[in-house]
Write a structure and sequence with these properties.
Number of helices: 5
Number of strands: 5
Strand order of the largest sheet: 2-1-3-4-5
Radius of gyration: 14 Å
CATH superfamily: Response regulator
CATH class: Alpha Beta
Order of helices and strands: EHEHEHEHEH
Distance between the termini: 18 Å
CATH topology: Rossmann fold
Number of domains: 1
Helix content: 25-40%
Length: 127
């Protein structure tokens, strides 16, 4: 019996249909914690979850993905954890710079299919 721990991924996406799609696409290979609000994600980050990778939408109600990335980077245990920002926006140079300077490891553009997302994640957590 394989008792190896699956990598734990936090997925933050305000669109519930897309959130469920990401969760279903990833759950076989990873332990997926899916949240539709950045405030919930911040609570999880503060409360001792051990995420190996974080994905976040850029545009969300209330706080942005940039806010969430900055928050995560402010927690010592998340300073080096890969954070992928998923967006449907075409980013200009200024916004791209703002996202990368916040601590984002990679920007991924929608639409993205589950298999492509798995490949991008595998690049960062070496499965």
């Amino acid at each position: 019996m394989n008792t190896e721990r699956k990598p734990q991924i936090l997925v933050v996406e305000p669109n519930d249909d897309l959130l469920n799609y990401f969760r279903q696409s990833l759950q076989g290979n990873y332990n997926v914690i899916a949240m539709n609000r950045p405030e919930k994600a911040k609570t999880a980050l503060q409360n001792g979850y051990n995420f190996d990778l974080i994905t976040t939408a850029l545009i969300m109600p209330g706080e942005s993905g940039i806010d969430l990335i900055r928050f995560a980077r402010g927690i010592e245990s998340y300073k080096d954890v890969p954070i992928l920002c998923i967006t449907g926006l075409i980013l200009d140079k200024e916004l791209t710079k703002k996202v990368t300077e916040s601590g984002c490891s990679k920007i991924i553009y929608k639409p993205i299919i589950g298999q492509k997302l798995k490949l991008k994640i595998n690049d960062f957590i070496n499965l």
